[in-house]
């Protein structure tokens, strides 16, 4: 496994602000290759800003993001698009677009301006549709799909982009619990079966605990802590990062940390944890 200085995607001392107001301050982060990394933190902490900066959507005011050892700011757009794919919050597509047509957009970084799709392009689209379980729905329009199916279609487009790195901003937002698990299970399979490196902004701490290998907690524009779910998800961290009192107990099925927020009435009787 690569160390922090040789990770495919990493940053050194990046700072980002909007209208003069700092959001991220001197952030150092190294994304573990072949892992699932969950970015957690309170609203406004800078999770999405960090993800977008790593994807070169936002230019930092200071510091450097490195992709394969080179400053990402200096790389050609096509080179970046062949290495990482970003799925933003609430992506919007043209009306009437089918699942297959959306998926084909993922091949653009690998094509010339006027070139026709190659056999390899079509194979990658087919593989992406198969991996996301959408082959039977490939000719359906996106607005005819359920929320979970639509999200899988966008992930299929990112897969067709054929990148080793997938960055997702709150991939389960607005989905019911069944569709959330459907999407998270898919991401886990892509990581386990294909070795994709995945970085995702997550609000649900228990989902971060169950699906991530590495958790990065962000607070006040800084990285508060980084570690495995078992190392990181403690009552002390939840209090410090979210301002919430909680108990953390082993999940009864897989033993991962299970975070249980405490109501006011429960705080007096709950056993003390560190």
Can you give a write-up of this model?
The chain is α/β, with parallel strands linked by helices and 274 residues long. It has 2 domains: 9-233, P-loop containing nucleotide triphosphate hydrolases (Rossmann fold), CATH 3.40.50; 234-274, no CATH class. It is 31% helix and 25% strand. The chain has helices spanning 47-54, 77-83, 99-105, 119-131, 147-160, 177-194, 205-211, 229-232, 235-242; strands at residues 9-18, 21-30, 36-40, 62-67, 70-71, 84-87, 165-169, 197-201, 214-219, 222-227, 246-250, 257-261. Strands 6-7-8-3-9-10 form a 6-stranded mixed β-sheet, sandwiched between helices. A 4-stranded antiparallel β-sheet has the order 2-1-4-5, covered by helices on one side. Strands 11-12 form a two-stranded antiparallel ribbon. The mean pLDDT is 91.
What are the defining features of this structure?
9 helices; alpha/beta; about 270 residues; single chain; Rossmann fold; about 30% helix; four-stranded antiparallel beta sheet
Structure summary, number of beta strands: 12
CATH topology of the largest domain: Rossmann fold
Termini separation (Å)? 32 Å
Mean pLDDT: 91
Largest sheet: 6 strands, mixed
- State the helix count: 9
**Share of β-strand residues:** 25-35%
Please specify the SSE layout and strand pairing.
Elements lengths: L8 E10 L2 E10 L5 E5 L6 H8 L7 E6 L2 E2 L5 H7 E4 L11 H7 L13 H13 L15 H14 L4 E5 L7 H18 L2 E5 L3 H7 L2 E6 L2 E6 L1 H4 L2 H8 L3 E5 L6 E5 L13
Parallel strand pairs: 3-8, 3-9, 6-7, 7-8
Antiparallel strand pairs: 1-2, 1-4, 4-5, 9-10, 11-12
């Amino acid at each position: 496994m690569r160390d922090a200085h040789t990770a495919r995607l990493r940053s050194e001392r990046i700072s980002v602000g909007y209208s003069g107001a700092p959001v991220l301050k001197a952030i150092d982060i190294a994304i573990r290759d072949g892992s699932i990394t969950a970015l957690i933190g309170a609203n406004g902490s800078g999770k999405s800003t960090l993800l977008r900066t790593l994807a070169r959507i936002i230019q930092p005011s200071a510091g450097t993001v490195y992709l394969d050892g080179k400053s990402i700011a200096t790389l050609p757009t096509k080179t970046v698009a062949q290495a990482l794919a970003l799925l933003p919050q609430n992506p919007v597509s043209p009306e009437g677009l089918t699942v297959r047509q959306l998926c084909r957009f993922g091949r653009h970084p690998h094509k010339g301006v006027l070139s026709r799709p190659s056999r390899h392009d079509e194979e990658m689209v087919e593989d992406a549709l198969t991996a996301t379980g959408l082959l039977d729905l490939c000719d359906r329009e996106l607005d005819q799909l359920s929320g979970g199916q639509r999200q899988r279609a966008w992930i299929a487009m990112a897969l067709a982009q054929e990148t080793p790195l997938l960055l997702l901003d709150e991939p389960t937002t607005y989905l019911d619990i069944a569709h959330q698990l459907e999407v998270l299970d898919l991401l886990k399979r892509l990581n386990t079966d294909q070795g994709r490196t995945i970085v995702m902004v997550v609000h649900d701490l228990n989902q971060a605990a169950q699906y991530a290998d590495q958790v990065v907690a962000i607070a006040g524009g800084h990285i508060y802590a980084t570690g495995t779910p078992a190392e990181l998800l403690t009552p002390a961290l939840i209090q410090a990062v979210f301002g919430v009192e909680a108990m953390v107990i082993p999940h009864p099925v897989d033993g991962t940390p299970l975070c249980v927020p405490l109501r006011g009435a429960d705080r007096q009787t709950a056993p003390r944890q560190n």
